[in-house]
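TA notes. Do not distribute before section.
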Amino acid sequence: MTATRIPDARPAVDARRAAIGVALVLVAQLMLILDTTIVTVALPRIDAGLGFGAASLSWVINAYGLAFGGLLLVGGRLGDVYGRRRVLEIGLALFTAASLLGALAQSPGWLVAARALQGIGAALTAPGVLALVHTSATDEAGRHRALALFSAVGIGGGALGLVLGGLLTDVGSWRWTLLINVPLGVAVLASIRRFVAETTRRPDRFDVVGAVSATGAAVAIVWALIGAPDKGWTSARTLGGLGLGVVLIAVLAVAERRVTHPMLRLVLLRDRRRVGALVVTTMVFGAQFSMFFLTVQYVQKVLGLTPLAAGAAFLPMSVGIFAMSRVTPRLVARFGQAPLLMIGTLGLTACMAWLSRAGAGSSYFGAVFGPMLLDGVAAGLTFMPAASLVVGGVEAEHAGSASGMLQTMQQLGGAIGLAVVASVYASGAVPGAFVPGLRDALLTSGAFTAIGFVVAATVIRRRRAAGR
C-alpha cells in the first residue's frame, strides 16, 4: 500500500507568521508618519492651551522633524550592526514613552522636548521597519507587495494623520493626538518578538565619525531650512546652517572612504537609478508636505471647515493611495519602475496645477476633491517604485543603511519643500487674506514634481533602456 503523503503545512504557517510580522512593523511605521501631521490640525488648540505664541508654535512640528530627519542614517546603521528588531524595539519604546510625556505636557518647553524625544525614537525605529519589510518577504512578488504597503503608509499615513488629528481634536483634546500612540506602541512591543525574527548581529565597529558628521549635516540643513522663510534665505542663520551642512557632508564622504565598516556605503550611490529614485523621492515629498501645509489652512481659513472636516478633506487622497497599493506591485512587475514614476510624477504635477486654481469663492467639491483624488492615485504610482529602486539589490546586511538613506531624503525633501513654498507664499501674501500667494505657492509645489518627472524620464528610464 502506498502511503498518502500529507502536505507540509510549514510554508503556510511561515507565510502567515511573516505576514503578521510585516503588519506589526507597518503599524509602527504608521505611528511615526501619523506624528508628522497629526498635531498640525491641533496647533491652534495647543497654542490656546499652553500659550506658545506665534514665534514658537512651529517647534511643535519642527522639533520632531529635526530629530527624526537628523538621526535616520544613524538609526539605520545601528540596526545593521546590533540587530534591527532590537533597535526597532528600543526606538518604539522611546517613541511611546515620549508620546505619553507629551500628552501630559504643562508648558511649551515640556511639549517641545517630548516631541524631540519622539523624533529620536522614530529615527531608531523607521529604518528597521523598511529593512524588515524588505527582507522578511519570501519572494520578489512578496517584496513588491510589502513595499507597496510601506509606501502607502508612508504618504497615506500623513493624510490620515490630518483626518485623525481633526477627529481627536474635535471630539476630545489635542492631548489625544499624542496619547493615541501609547496603546498602539504597547501592543506592537508586546507582540513583535513572536512574529519578527531578529537579524544577525554584525561584529563591526561602529563608525563614530560617520555618525557624527551625518547627523550634524542633516540637522544643520533641516534647521537652516526650517528658519529660512522667517529669517530670510540670505540671513546668517540660513547660509551658516547650509554651509555647515555642506562641510559636514564633505567630512562624511572623506571619512567613509577610509573606514573598514562605514556607516553609509558610498557604493550605494554609484547606481544612477538608485540616485535618481532618491532625487524623485526628495522632490515628491517636498511637494506633498508643502501641499498639506497650504491645503489644510485653505479649507479652514477660506472654506470655513472645522478641524474634523479639514482632516476629512484629505480622505480622497488616502483612499486613492491605499487603493493603488493593491495594484502597483503588479504594474511594476509588468512595466518596470520608470514608466510608473513618470506617470505618477506627471499626475502629481497636474494635481498641483489643478489645486492652484482654488480661490476665495470656490467650494470643496469644486476645487479640492478632484485634486485630492488625483493626488492619491498619482502618489500611489510613485512611492513604491521609488522605494524598490533604492532598497532593491542591496545586501541584506546593509538594508538598514539603504532604508535610512531613503527616509532621510523623505524628511529632507519635506523640509526643503516647506521652506521654499512658504517663502514663495509669503512673497505674494496680503495681510488678512489667505488666497493671495496661494496660486504661486502651489505651482511651486508642482515644479518639484515636474523635476521628479524629468529625472524619471532621463536618469532612471535611460539607464533601464541601456541595460536591455
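Switch to the second chain here.
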Amino acid sequence: MTATPSDPIWATIRDEAKAQARQEPLLASFIHAVVLNHKRLEDALSFILATKLESSTLPAVSLRDLIDEALDADPGIGVALRADLKAVLTRDPACLGYSVPLLYFKGFHAIQAYRVGHHFWMRDRKPLALFLQSRVSEVFSVDIHPGARLGKGLLFDHATSIVIGETAVVEDDFSMLHEVTLGGTGKVGGDRHPKIGRGVLIGAGAKILGNVKIGEGAKIGAGSVVLEDVPAHVTVVGVPARVVSYPAYGLPALEMDQQVEVRSELEAIRESGVHRV
C-alpha cells in the first residue's frame, strides 16, 4: 500500500511509522496494524478509535463500520482531523511528529471520537451519539457532549478530566490543558454553556460556567473560575476570575505560554501589535 500523494500529512505519518518499526522491532506488528496496513489517514483513525472504544456489546468490527460511515459522509471531519494534528505538532513540545498524537495522545483521540459522535447527533441518531460519548468518557476521561460545537485546530494537552457541555461552542485554534470544565451553572436549561472565541488558551483546572462569552485571544489562568464574560485579548485569573493583564500574543492558544504577567495595556499593545478598543 502506498500513501496518497495529495495527502502529505499521511505520507509523513507513514514514513515516521516505518522508522519507528525499524527502531523498535517489538512494536513493528502494532505499527503495521494501526498505520502501515491502511491506505488513508481516515482508515487508520477508524481502526485506532474502534479498537480503543469497543465494548462487550459493540465489538470493534461493528464500531469501525460506524466510524467509517461518519468519516466517508462528512469530509469536514478529515479536514478538522488534519488541522488538529498540525495543532498538536506545532504547540506541544512533547510531540515528535504527526504519528505521535495519532498513535498515543488520548486528547487527540477524544476530539476525533467527539467529531464522529457529533456527526450522528446532527443526523438525529442521538442514542448512538450518546453511546459514543459514554465510551469516550470511560476510556479517555474526556466527556464532550455530542451536541457541543467544536472548531478545528484544537489541542487538549494531557486531556484528563475534561468536561464540555451540550450547548458549548469552541471556535478554531483553541488550546486547553487537563481538568477544564466548560459547563453550566445548574440553574437553567436551554443555551447554558460557554462560548469560546478563536485562539483562546485555558490553563489546567479552570472552570468556565454558564452561557458566558470568552473573547478571541483571551487567556484563562490555571485554576480560575469564570462566571462572567471575558473580553477579547485579556488575561484573567482567580476565583472568581478577574482581568490582570494582556497576553503578549494575539492568539495565546498558538503559543501555549502559561505565564501570567501583570502589565499595562500600553505595554501589551506595544509588544503584541494587537489593536484594542
